[in-house]
């Protein structure tokens, strides 16, 4: 028995010695991924390495251009011992690294190679070569050419305008940046292959237009930008106070909560109201932006926009409202349309030709209709007592889309009317003004805009 045990011990020792001498880790797997097709001023690459047996021993990433090698990252790890089948190890590593000109100062135009080297765990008598994977990327550091063609860009805070410009062939994205908003550009109908235009707005809460620029970007992230606003007319937010009471909150919560499955009953009247006024309002605006992103890339209208007739304006565009309950401010929100009151259940006309993209119960707006007029321009009709159109339906200027009402966050029968560009609510009054349409849009876009005035 003792001899047998001794033999087992000797065999185990021989196996351990053999493992220690020869058991190197298997070849690691390496992947290099880049979201960009080229390296520009800013670019990032993600390197992923894995070896689940004994674990990684080391990982090094370099950027190589000609005879220059730029170290990006280098890490070492404690691998599992060659004789062991358990214990700590690093199975995988993922590194996201900046490789653009801003991070690698001596980078030049041309080509560069991202090289990743992963070292496997070695044994006493065996140290296999590391695994090396390379990815070649073009380096482009010159932004697209960009020039503004139109002139006389006069814009109101909260209002819209148009700009015509020309971009270089390398541009893959262009438009107008205004604060946190981006208004995409479109091919100019009837123009040359590089001629573009954008309908844009200065947001109602942006009072500095120094950063409003036409921009063009290539697939390497290089960006050209040009300021172009000739004159800006500030229109500060108006202030208003809404005094809440239990009767009003009970009315709107009882209607909106069961009609909006994504909301949860918080068991408190005020908390339920604030959930609607804050969270649901934000969600509604996000959906409006989604609808605008799918807008038809064509002008669907040919006449001035039409207001609802014989109405009194009960609330203005861009009012900053403080909500007061029992003498205490409990919320602040912006009213981004016009509240227009007429007779009870009055017919609500479509402001212009377009396609209905929403016709249903819609959160704070209650029964609502959204009409797409093309190129991201849409009109919204809220608080309707009834809806008379269907999604996908083509409507003409003046067609009735529904009847005024008091659904949603409404205290009485009226129409909440909005005009939005790319999901941003803008002043509706400009779009009713034939002189504004002629001066601000037609004179810039010319025959590209089928508007006769």
Describe this structure in words.
The chain has 453 residues and is α+β, with helices and mostly antiparallel strands. It is 17% helix and 40% strand. The chain has 5 helices and 31 strands. Strands 19, 22, 24, 25, 26, 28, 30 and 31 form an 8-stranded antiparallel β-sheet that branches. α2 packs across α3 (269-293). The longest helix is centred in the middle third of the chain and has 25 residues, at 269-293. The protein is globular, with a radius of gyration of 32 Å.
Summarize the model shown.
The protein has helices spanning 2-22, 246-259, 269-293, 429-432, 434-445; strands spanning 29-34, 44-50, 56-65, 68-76, 92-98, 110-120, 131-139, 146-148, 154-156, 160-167, 171-178, 181-184, 186-187, 195-201, 213-218, 223-227, 231-233, 238-244, 312-315, 319-325, 328-335, 338-341, 347-349, 354-361, 367-372, 377-384, 386-387, 394-395, 400-403, 415-421, 424-426.
The profile of the biggest β sheet is: 8 strands, antiparallel
Low-pLDDT sequence parts: 4-23
Total number of beta strands = 31
Helix percent band? 10-25%
| Cα end-to-end separation | 109 Å
Mean pLDDT: 92
**Assembly status:** single chain
Number of helices: 5
Q: What is the CA-atom radius of gyration, in angstroms?
A: 32 Å
Question: Structural class of the helices, strands and pairings?
Answer: alpha+beta
% residues in beta strands: 35-45%
Shape: globular
């Amino acid at each position: 028995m003792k001899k047998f045990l001794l033999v087992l011990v000797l065999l185990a020792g021989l196996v351990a010695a053999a493992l220690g001498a020869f058991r190197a880790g298997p070849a690691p797997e390496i992947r290099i991924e880049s979201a960009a097709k080229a390296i520009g001023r800013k670019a990032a690459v993600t390197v992923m390495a894995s070896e689940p047996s004994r674990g990684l021993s080391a990982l090094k990433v370099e950027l190589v251009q000609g005879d220059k090698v730029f170290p990006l990252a280098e890490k070492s790890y404690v691998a599992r011992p060659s004789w062991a089948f358990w214990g700590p190890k690093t199975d995988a590593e993922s590194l996201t690294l900046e490789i653009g000109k801003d991070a690698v100062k001596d980078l030049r135009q041309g080509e560069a190679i991202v090289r990743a080297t992963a070292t496997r765990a070695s044994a006493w008598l065996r140290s296999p070569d590391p695994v090396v994977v390379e990815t070649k990327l073009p380096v482009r550091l010159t932004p697209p050419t960009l020039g503004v063609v139109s002139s006389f860009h006069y814009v109101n805070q909260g209002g819209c305008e148009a700009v015509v410009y020309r971009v270089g062939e390398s541009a893959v994205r262009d438009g107008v940046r205004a604060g946190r908003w981006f208004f995409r550009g479109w091919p100019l109908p009837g123009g040359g292959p590089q001629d573009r235009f954008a309908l844009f707005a200065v947001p109602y809460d942006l009072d500095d237009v120094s950063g409003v620029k036409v921009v063009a970007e290539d697939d390497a992230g290089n960006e050209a930008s040009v300021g172009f606003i000739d004159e800006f007319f500030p229109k500060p937010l108006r202030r208003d106070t809404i005094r809440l009471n239990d009767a009003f909150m009970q009315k709107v919560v009882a209607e909106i909560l069961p009609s909006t499955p994504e909301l949860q009953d918080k068991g408190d009247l005020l908390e339920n109201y604030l959930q609607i006024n804050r969270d649901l309002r934000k969600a509604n605006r996000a959906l409006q932006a989604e609808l605008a992103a799918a807008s038809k890339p064509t002008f669907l209208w040919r006449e001035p926009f039409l207001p609802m007739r014989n109405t009194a304006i009960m609330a203005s565009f861009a009012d900053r409202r403080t909500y007061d309950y029992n003498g205490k401010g409990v919320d602040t929100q912006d009213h981004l349309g016009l509240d227009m009151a007429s007779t009870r259940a009055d017919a609500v006309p479509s402001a212009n030709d377009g396609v209905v993209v929403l016709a249903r119960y819609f959160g704070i707006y209650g029964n609502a209709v959204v009409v797409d007029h093309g190129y991201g321009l849409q009109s919204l009709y809220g608080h309707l007592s009834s809806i008379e159109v269907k999604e996908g339906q083509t409507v003409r200027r003046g067609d009735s889309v529904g009847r005024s009402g008091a659904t949603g966050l409404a205290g009485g029968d009226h129409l909440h009317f909005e005009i939005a560009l790319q999901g941003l609510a803008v002043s509706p009054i400009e779009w009713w003004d034939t002189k504004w349409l002629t001066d601000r849009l037609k004179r810039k876009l010319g025959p590209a805009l089928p508007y006769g005035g």
